[in-house]
Protein: Branched-chain-amino-acid aminotransferase
Organism: Triparma strigata
Amino acid sequence: MLTSRSPLALRPILRSLVTRGYASNFRASDLTIKPRTSPPRVKSPKEQLAFGKEFSDSMLTIDWTREGGWGIPVIEEFGDLAISPAATGLHYGIQCFEGMKCYFSPSDDSLRLFRPDLNMARMNSSMQRLAMPGFDGGEMIELLKKFCEVEKEWVPKGAGYSLYLRPTAIGTHPFLGVDVSDHVKLFVIASPVGPYYPTGFKPVSLFADSTNKRAWPGGVGSFKVGGNYGPTILPAKEAMEKGFNQILWMFGDDDEVTECGAMNLFFVVQEGDKKVLWTAPLSRGDILPGVTRKSIIDLCESWDGIEVRESFPKMPEIKKASQEGRLLEAFGAGTAAVVSPIERINYNGYDINIPATGELTSKVWDELNGIYYGDIEGPEGWSVRV
């Protein structure tokens, strides 16, 4: 049943934003590339890359105003933004972002994006949830391709290496007041990154937090907005001080499992003669529709011997499955780490121990990485050549 708390209930609102003139189209064919005026930035050896610490020479920017709509896309030198200290993005959290990667494929010396249409659809959804303008996802993908081509020397080569892309939108309306932002800046920056786990799979431990909540029905957990992340930093810090890598987020009196850290969460349990891949559903609106999440589900639904279940696992059920020897694997999934094996979950003082790296976790890892780098063809439209 469609309720006011369902993500589907937002669609008429989002459509109304578009029809009232909040959206217009920019075109990739109008792109302007400004000449550099300073020397290229120094590149670190790829073995020394740390996630998000180093940035490429350029950035892509597009400005929007209520009066003029979308402006001309520009690729210019990477640099600080000049915005008003009263900008709505600074005061009211009018900001959202995406995480993507550009990969070098040694099989044909090409650059590739992974399912960029899903990222663009999700970013449109996030922006419109914040009453920002929509945009043409196809045109933005073409701009991303051109941006990657300009920055191709920044795409590190080798398994586990990529150029991380961060499309971002912020409200730049230069006046105070909780209202729709009349000025928006859409920009893309890029950071060369190495393997998330330099020594291969590194299983993590989770602290099941029964006090703090990441998201809730009727909130914005299904949108990639900045406000979802800031409030998680202190609980995550406290969990790390207790010896855990990340938090397992729960909701409700029954301790329903939602996500872990900033990743979607999967369990593999044995039920009779079948294996079940179990993850929280998107239907309630408090789970981020991850691109990696969807890709794992799509792959597993096409494989024999595994049943995909989208319903809320409850921690008492997971504990019981572990005690009965039926909890076979657990992993988080996201763009940064791809899959992150989980070896331990502390729930109300009880340690649930899980096999460190299971068969399905490894298979998902191998399949996705093969598609990323062009070693595996993958389903149509997943690996998009730049």
Notes: The two ends are 41 Å apart (CA to CA). The first strand starts at residue 32 and ends at 33.
